Amino acid sequence: MTTTTSLLSPAADATPSAHLKDLSHSWVVAAEIQVEPRIASIADFRGSFKAVAGQRIEALEVYCRDCRRPYDEVKGEDCAEKIDNRHLIGGDQSVRKKRKLPPSPTGTTIVPGGTIQRRGINAYMAGVCRPR
After folding, report:
1. Among candidate residues 105, 130, 103, 106, the one with its CA nearest the CA of residue 116
2. Predicted model pTM
3. Rounded average pLDDT over 61-65
4. 120: left (phi over 0), alpha (psi -120 to 50) or beta
5. pLDDT tens for each residue of 80-102
6. Which of 51, 71, 98, 115 could disulfide-pair with 62, CB 3.0 to 4.6 Å?
7. Which of 60, 55, 57, 80 is nearest to 69 (CA)?
């Protein structure tokens, strides 16, 4: 008969704070900054630039980087993306209405084509040896 002992004390296993996730939002600000033409070309080329100290920056929108929701809608709540990111994919897939296929043109019939080999050596050879 063998017995196993835990390397951690029972008190360490019972602490719930070790398993909690940080559900806070990551706030970002969409801003509008007036710059000189020289700085505009640098920002366009590099994707970033250095602002002057004391420059006033107009905030267009404040939102969470993760869940993409505005500050005034979700302040004081946990970040939905860190809990479950279904809101980013349009909600629960089992409840959503299915997409309708567009109707086929009048007087036409759809004829299924042959199968296309997309993997393996046969797919490579079909692409290389295809007549032109």
Report:
1. 130
2. 0.46
3. 89
4. left
5. 777 776 666 666 667 777 778 88
6. 71
7. 80
